Amino acid sequence: xxxKKKFNLEYEIKSSPRILYSxxxxxxxxxxxxxxDVSVRDQVYTFTWDDETQRAKLITxxxxxxxxxxxxxxxxxxxxxxxxxxxxxxxDVALAITDFATDENIADRKLIWDNQIDYLISxxxx
Length: 126
What we know:
Blueprint: E1 5-12, H1 17-25, H2 27-31, E2 37-41, E3 44-49, E4 52-62, E5 66-71, E6 80-86, E7 93-101, H3 103-124
Antiparallel strand pairs: 1-7, 2-3, 3-4, 4-5, 5-6, 6-7
């Protein structure tokens, strides 16, 4: 099995950081765009997609700024980070994604993220 590599994506989102943040760290918000179902217990999030479940621990949180999840069944160095970036001059908001995938899966993962973020933007009405 080949080693997973970190990759970064950035998407412009027309939303306030406060509203966007609720879609990144609250089970209800994540269910609206990221997974079919999300539940949280003791900082462990259970994500369900088409009857497949993955669990992740919330390891870093900065209000209205950043969430980082560590997948419980993944390699130790791998995590999923979603960071809200706001330009100080223009107040434009972007969502930066840091994820991990093997070389042969990075292109597919990027397409999945593109679709997920499109869905998030439509959910936000942005």
